[in-house]
Automatic annotation (TrEMBL), chain A:
InterPro entries membership: ABC_transp_permease, LivM-like
Pfam families registered for this protein in UniProt: BPD_transp_2
Domain of life: Bacteria
Protein name stated in the entry: Branched-chain amino acid ABC transporter permease
Topology of this chain in the membrane: Multi-pass membrane protein
Species this chain originates from: Tianweitania aestuarii
Keywords recorded for this protein, A-Z: Cell membrane, Membrane, Transmembrane, Transmembrane helix
Keyword Membrane belongs to the record: yes
Transmembrane segments: 7-24, 30-50, 62-79, 85-106, 160-179, 212-234, 249-273, 285-303
Compartments, as annotated in UniProt: Cell membrane
TrEMBL record, chain B:
Gene Ontology molecular function, alphabetical: ATP binding
Keyword Transport tagged: yes
Species the sequence originates in: Tianweitania aestuarii
Official protein name in the record: ABC transporter ATP-binding protein
UniProt keyword Transport, yes or no: yes
Family matches, as InterPro entries: AAA+_ATPase, ABC_transporter-like_ATP-bd, ABC_transporter-like_CS, BCAA_Transport_ATP-bd_LivF, P-loop_NTPase
Family: Belongs to the ABC transporter superfamily.
UniProt domain ABC transporter: residue ranges: 2-233
CDD domains for the chain: ABC_TM1139_LivF_branched
Amino acid sequence: MKFNSVGQIALVVAVCAYLLSVYFMASPVWMGFTINALIVAVIAQSWNITGGFGGMSSFGHAALYGTGAYASAILQVQYGVNPWLAFAIGIVAGAAMGGFIGALAFRYGLKGSYFALVTLAFAEVLRICASSFDITGGGSGLQLKLEPGIANLQFPDRTVVYTLLLVVVALVMLVTYMIKKSRFGAYLVAVRENEDAARALGIDTYKIKVQAMVISGAFGGLAGALYLQLWLFIDSTVVYGSAVSIEALIGPIIGGAGTVWGPLIGTLGLHLLGEGAKHLLPNAPGLNFVLYAIVLICAVRFLPRGLMGLAALIGTLKTRKDEDHA
Amino acid sequence: MLKLSGIKAGYGSMSVLQGLDLHVDKGEIVALLGSNGVGKTTLNNVISGFIRPTAGTVTFKGDVLNNRKPSEIVAMGVAHVPEGRKIFPNLSISENLKLGAFRRASSNISQNFDRVCTIFPRLKERLSQLAGTLSGGEQQMLAIGRGMMSEPELLILDEPSLGLSPIMVEEMFDLITKINADGVSVLLVEQNVMQSLGVAQRAYVIEQGRFVMQGEAATLLADPQLRQAYLGM
């Protein structure tokens, strides 16, 4: 991976150092908190594919997350399907939901705030449906049976869970990196930068956008299915609620939308901030969301390219990229 | 090479093009002249596949384009440089150019890249610069250069001189001649009648969705009616 500046390298090294240091911290609180943040980092990366690279800002990524979680939970609880298989189907279900929303929204040329509103509407409709039907457990949600063991994809040991999540996050980032470097990634950026020009160059923008939604949906479904395996319980608010959608978009925006590391960096930073606030002011639950909002406003105003963009300004390295053609 | 016959098209219930016949032969520069709002851009969009004609056929080297997607039309060798310099402002110049090559000719990117750099030395000097920081004329060159990256046989230029300084307009028309000399046929959509007739072999004059004059550029340039209407002479 190529970085443009000393600042970005420092930022990435700091994040990796933190993730490693969690193994050696005496208090289990850190690991528990970081585990949550890593799951959010996956849904954040999901948002980053469409919102960051493709410029399609969704306000309803909970639709993908919840679909992955519910698909896996319904199969396991109602039909006794093997957890590994259910987990895989959860990812596929997320991808299918992404493709469905994308195909419908882009078919009618929805962009910008209209696209954001439609995705929000999808998430809300799904949330209400999930709390209304028997198959989804209605208002009481779905609970997986506690059966620890690798065969059931349940790991009681936090350190094992943490390690597995690190591997998953690394894989998701690797896929994102490959997308970024691929022809498909370039098409996606072209769509973000100027869709009319992209069309004039012969890019089938509808297809590209739907494909991006499918990939994003797979990541989102993965995040939801991971959440289910970790907590063994979901209900409609937890996985389809707008808090999920907000967490999905705020991390990449703070960290740097359209970068491979941005979503992870932004999510970890925000969660550290939120956690710190909880300890400082234990009597103000929900304060972390107030802080998120303040940070988001500041980031949009002062850091349009996120923390990665800020770090890029520190110690810029000369790239050799442009000399290739000289 | 490109042939339109009986093309009608419009937006919703409003019809813009009232049955047009046009052809561009291999190696030609053909100018399509007319003032604002007469259907020049609509005709362009029909050829590029953004708008479906309601009647008539568009063929390119014998293949009917009517129901093709824009992406397929580009792949067939028709590059469209849209009006208003639609570049990618936050990408570098070399990135802008490379995006032009993805649909077609992706195997000879570096060869086409060199070719574009030779035609547009101004771009070559600024390859790593963000496209949004270029001047208007340079952005227009970039848009044309990006179109050239797909190795087109026909290049459609929609008002390349729009909003450029007089000196830059001169340079732009020189470049169009240079591109044509390189073996690319050009359909030049313009309001700048004098300059366009200077570089084109043939021209069509469009008014209210109909061609009111057509023929050799030299003949049109001498036509008193045209001089009266467009040059105020």
